[in-house]
């Protein structure tokens, strides 16, 4: 009787099937990995020309109001008697910025931050004395319009000295920064850097 030296076919077929299955799984895994979906967040922000214009359209932006009253007196010496005039002046100084004075590039996005350069805080209206409320507290003698104008100029200078102090200007800047930040946050911006022009 002859001996059969041939290798059984069934284990070879199983081994080939296993190898093919491994190769197929490996190929599917590689293809799915290259087709994966990746979600990333864009950290860049942008501001539109319409948004910039809507801020500029605010125009004069008041940050601090200072009401003041000044009593000014003057005496004119006479031969027989002296003439006296005492007047009380009322004024309201408004400190803030005029957005019509902004320069090109005053508001720009940089990465995830929006940078704003505002004009210098100052007096919005130089004609702040309310002449209708001005009244004479005491008057003796005859006084001309020129005399009264001179007294008003003195009251004006005193109000400026009292109103435009470094402390008031700093308070106006802080109020302004808070208001501008609030407007920009309302537009959806989170990181905001604000500075004033020197």
Description:
With 198 residues, the protein is α+β, with helices and mostly antiparallel strands. It contains four helices and seven strands; from the N terminus they run ααββββββααβ. The protein has helices at residues 9-34, 49-56, 145-163, 166-186, and strands spanning 60-76, 83-98, 107-110, 113-118, 122-123, 135-140, 191-196. The strands form two sheets. Strands 1, 2, 5 and 6 form a four-stranded antiparallel beta sheet that branches. A three-stranded mixed beta sheet has the order 3-4-7, covered by helices on one side. It is rod-shaped and about 150 Å long. The chain starts with 8 loop residues before the first helix and ends with a strand. The model has no long low-confidence stretch (mean pLDDT 83).
- Sequence of secondary-structure elements: HHEEEEEEHHE
> Care to count the β-strands?
7
**N- to C-terminal distance:** 113 Å
Counting copies of identical and different chains, the oligomeric state is single chain
Largest sheet: 4 strands, antiparallel
Number of helices: 4
Strand content: 25-35%
Structural class per helix/strand content? alpha+beta
Q: Give Rg in angstroms.
A: 40 Å
| Residue runs with pLDDT of under 50 for 5 or more positions | none
Compute the average pLDDT. 83
Proportion in helices? 25-40%
Shape annotation: rod-shaped
